[in-house]
Design goal:
By secondary structure, the protein is mainly α. 79% of the residues lie in helices and 0% in strands. The protein has a single domain, classed as Four Helix Bundle (Hemerythrin (Met), subunit A). Keywords: Cell membrane, Membrane, Translocase, Transmembrane, Transmembrane helix.
Amino acid sequence: MVSVGTIIWLSSELMFFAALFAAYYTIRSVSPELWPANTEKLNVPFAAVNTTILVLSSVTCQMGVFKAEAGKVGRSGRLFNVGAWGLREWFLLTYVMGAIFIAGQATEYASLIQEGVTIPDSAYGTMFYLTTGFHGLHVTGGLIAFLFVLGRTYVARTFTHEQAVSAIVVSYYWHFVDVVWIGLFATIYIIK
């Protein structure tokens, strides 16, 4: 039931992001002169590396889910023996990668603000920060969810099916956030 409820909730989130995409393209169509001047200020290679980190975090998240489904909470060998990792290690790595993505977004924001791309400056700035900012809030929400799942693994005496389901549900959310970012990256950084 939790998985079905999460999928229904993610459908509503999909509608939210669809509205952001629609607003982005609508404003872009009525103010096309703003886009060439502002998109040249974007650091596409930096954003591509940041995107790669986020997309790879989906892989590490899924590895954690596989370990959760197998009932393996913690590592059974040395730290650098990745094959012996459990849910905790994979989710911690996913958390770190997500945090690096958020730090990268903050770095990009600081750079763009110095170049004069701000929310009150233009419709481009408004849409850039609105779309990427809401996505960043969703990534931050995912990071908090990872902390809750990790905390449950340390507090619980035994690893149960319910804990595996919570890891799976968090992975649904994380994969969703990653897919949305791929769309945003293509829209903002590639389609000029």
